[in-house]
Specification:
With about 260 residues, the protein is of the alpha+beta class. It has two domains: about 100 residues, no CATH class; about 140 residues, no CATH class. The chain is built from seven helices and ten strands.
Length: about 260
C-alpha cells in the first residue's frame, strides 16, 4: 500500500500548506539560482512498520495510508514526533491534526467558495525525453521527495514478467514514499541497481525523469508538486528507437517520455 495522490492533495489542502505543529509554510520560495524547496512531509500517526513510531499490531494494515492516519509536518517536527513517541502519542497527534485543520479552515474562511484542489501541468516543465537509468543512485534521485508517481510499463507476456515489473515498480514507489537515512540510502541504491540489472536481463530498459507540477486550489497559495516519472519498456520497443539517441560517454541513452 502507499499514500494515494488524492489523500496527498486533501492533506495538503486541509493543512493550508503548513506544519501542524509550528505552522511554518511547507514550500520555501525559489531563489535566483534554485527552484522552490518542499520541506513538508506526509507523516503517519500510527506506523505500519513493526517497531515503527506508535506501531500498533491491532491497527488495520489497510488503514495505515488513510487520510485519517496522516498529518502534515515539517521535517524537524516529523523527526521530533517520531523520536519522542512517549510524548507524541497517537491520541495527541490526532488531536494536533484536527485542531490544526480547524485552525486553517477558520483562519482562511471568507465568503468566497473554496476552489477545488487540482494539480496543474506547466508546459515549460514537461520533459521532452526521459533518461535511461542504469544505477540505483540515479533512480533514487528521481523518486525521492516526490508528491506523486507517474509509472507505466509495457505489457508483461508471462507471470514471471508480471512479477518482475510489479516488484520493481512497487519497490521504487515504496522507497520514494519514505525519507532514507544515509546508510539506508546505500542499501536502497544497491537493491535498485540489482533490480535494474534483473530487468535488463529480462529484456527491459528503464527510463525516468521528474516533472515539477503545481498544486492549486483549496486553502493556501499554490505550491510546487514534484512528480516522479518511470517507464519500463522492452528493449525492442520502437519508441526507444524513434526517440532515442546513441549512448553518451557515460553509457546512457535517452527515450520517449
Amino acid at each position: 500500500m502507499a499514500i494515494s495522490d488524492k489523500s496527498r492533495k486533501v492533506l495538503w489542502g486541509r493543512s493550508g500548506n503548513r506544519c501542524a505543529v509550528c505552522r511554518r509554510e511547507m514550500v520555501v520560495d525559489a531563489t535566483s539560482n534554485d527552484n522552490e524547496s518542499v520541506i513538508g512531509e506526509e507523516c503517519h500517526i500510527v506506523s505500519g512498520r513493526v517497531g515503527g513510531p506508535r506501531y500498533d499490531p491491532q491497527f488495520p494494515a489497510e488503514r495505515v495510508d488513510d487520510l485519517s492516519n496522516l498529518v502534515l509536518l515539517c521535517r524537524v517536527h516529523h523527526k521530533m514526533v517520531d523520536d519522542q513517541v512517549e510524548t507524541y502519542t497517537t491520541d495527541l497527534l490526532t488531536a494536533l491534526k484536527l485542531n490544526h485543520e480547524k485552525w486553517v479552515s477558520v483562519s482562511l474562511a471568507d465568503d468566497k467558495p473554496t476552489p477545488p484542489v487540482r494539480v496543474r501541468r506547466i508546459k515549460e516543465n514537461m520533459p521532452n525525453h526521459l533518461v535511461r537509468l542504469t544505477s540505483g543512485r540515479d533512480l533514487l534521485a528521481i523518486i525521492e521527495h516526490s508528491m506523486a508517481f507517474d509509472f507505466d510499463h509495457d505489457e508483461p507476456q508471462s507471470q514471471d514478467e508480471a512479477e518482475l515489473l510489479s516488484g520493481f515498480l512497487q519497490e521504487a514507489q515504496d522507497l520514494g514514499d519514505i525519507d532514507l537515512e544515509a546508510g539506508d540510502r546505500v542499501k536502497a541504491s544497491f537493491s535498485l541497481t540489482s533490480s535494474l540489472q534483473d530487468l535488463e536481463q529480462a529484456g527491459f530498459v528503464v527510463f525516468g525523469g521528474r516533472e515539477m507540477r503545481r498544486l492549486e486550489g483549496g486553502i493556501g497559495p499554490p505550491s510546487s508538486f514534484p512528480i516522479s516519472i518511470l517507464r519500463v519498456l522492452r528493449s525492442t520497443n520502437p519508441k526507444i528507437i524513434r526517440w532515442g539517441v546513441p549512448p553518451d560517454s557515460t553509457g546512457r541513452t535517452e527515450g520517449s517520455a
